[in-house]
Amino acid sequence: MEFRLTEEQRMIKDTARDLVAREIEPVLAAHDRDRPLPQAAMLKLYAALEPLGLMAPRLPEEVGGSALPYLSYGLIMEQLPAALGISILSHESTTTRIYLGADEEQKRRFLPALVKGKTIACSGISEPNVGSDPRAIETRARREGDQVVIDGTKLWITNGTVADLMVAVAAMAGAGLDRAEAKKSTITRIVVERAHSPYQAHEVAAIGMRQGHLSEIVFEGCRVPARNVLGEPGDAHQALTLTWLANRPLVGLMAVGLAQRALDACLAYVGMRKQFGRHIGSFQLVQQMLSEMLARIEASRLLCLRALALMDEGARSNKEAATAKWFATENCLHALHLAMQVHGASGLTDEVGLERLFRDARMLTIPDGTTQIQHLIVGQELTGFRSFRS
Ligand SMILES: Cc1cc2nc3c(=O)[nH]c(=O)nc-3n(C[C@H](O)[C@H](O)[C@H](O)COP(=O)(O)OP(=O)(O)OC[C@H]3O[C@@H](n4cnc5c(N)ncnc54)[C@H](O)[C@@H]3O)c2cc1C
């Protein structure tokens, strides 16, 4: 068992941290912290991150991917501001979903711009009536000659308003809305290029990650060339599950990054702030809060990195990924709550920045499977009893 990062891994982490300070933070600071960034700013950030291999970390080099080990990807993800981290995750997992099942012509058509971060991608799975149970998708697609016509609404789509293309997950015609029929699976991935197949996209305001883009997408008779359909009709779930697996510890590491920044801020604060004539850092109850934060953060980090390391070894690590996701997002959120407590009233204001970290972290217990869904995945693996469809 080895608990130290290698020299190369340390270098990757340091490089990412420096790059964020040098090239990412100034762009974020130049824009309203509570408004979605314009697409041009997003593309600038993507260009800055492209040399780290983040546009297509899961793809092989022959198609322009960086084939980054998952562990290295996780080390970088921890350093990224959350709104950007979730955007990159959405972009690159969409790119991976295209790669998995695309024929050679589709790969040639879609991948080159995506792997360079010249265009932005998103995945449309969730809908107003569809969240934790993606098999119940209501968006419909039907063949009309050499086109596919899509009708339906997608909700909570990261990158939705700034994306050039979406992998829309829809039930191909023939599927009924009832579950028995849907079970035969007609759930299919379709690449929708916004310039050629326009759709409506609106921002949805949420508690955190406000420089990012959480969107509602409406397809009304949206016409897409039939050659944009990926893989076999009905095979979407497999590609989604494969990408969700690694996404879980990666989202966990976003939470770790937020909580670590909060702990660093606390350590500086308790050495300055005085009450009762003493630094608050000398009070045992304050030290207890710091100690608890540290334990929650470090345990979270280790679980996430372990899940990713197992994936690098080729293990499926479903249980480990699910554990890492719920534990890290919930515990880092609690660590942020403690960080605000350490700062007293000033921790609640927007001057210190903790409330923003807290609001960002609050977003992370939901995507890529809620905390409850992660528990069900773990429970199923532990007991062998299936408590929900997976
Ligand atoms: C920041 C963020 C980014 C996102 N990005 C995307 C994206 O890019 N693309 C996309 O398609 N979607 C995206 N989503 C949507 C996300 O995938 C869904 O929000 C998530 O799957 C949960 O669905 P829901 O919100 O509809 O909640 P629901 O599924 O309605 O769940 C509501 C509550 O019920 C619980 N619950 C549901 N089923 C069970 C069960 N069987 N047993 C016990 N409890 C259960 C849940 O845990 C939750 O507490 C994003 C969401 C967020 C917050």
Number of helices: 11
Give the overall pLDDT as a whole number.
95
Content of β-strand: 5-15%
How many discrete domains? 3
What global shape is seen? globular
Structural class: alpha+beta
For this structure, the CATH topology of the largest domain is Butyryl-CoA Dehydrogenase, subunit A, domain 3
Helix content: 40-55%
Give me the CATH architecture of the largest domain, please.
Up-down Bundle
**Distinct compounds present:** flavin-adenine dinucleotide
Query: What would you give as the CATH superfamily of the largest domain?
Result: Butyryl-CoA Dehydrogenase, subunit A, domain 3
The SSE string, one letter per element, is HHHHHEEEEHEEEEHEEHHHH
Task: Give the uncertain stretches in residue-range form.
Answer: none
Task: Using the coordinates above, name the CATH class of the largest domain.
Answer: Mainly Alpha
**CA-CA gap between termini:** 32 Å
Instruction: Please outline the major beta sheet.
Output: 8 strands, mixed
Annotation, overall tally of beta strands: 10
Keywords, separated by commas or semicolons:
single chain, 390 residues, alpha+beta, Butyryl-Coa Dehydrogenase, subunit A, domain 1, Butyryl-CoA Dehydrogenase, subunit A, domain 2, Butyryl-CoA Dehydrogenase, subunit A, domain 3, 3 domains, two-stranded antiparallel sheet
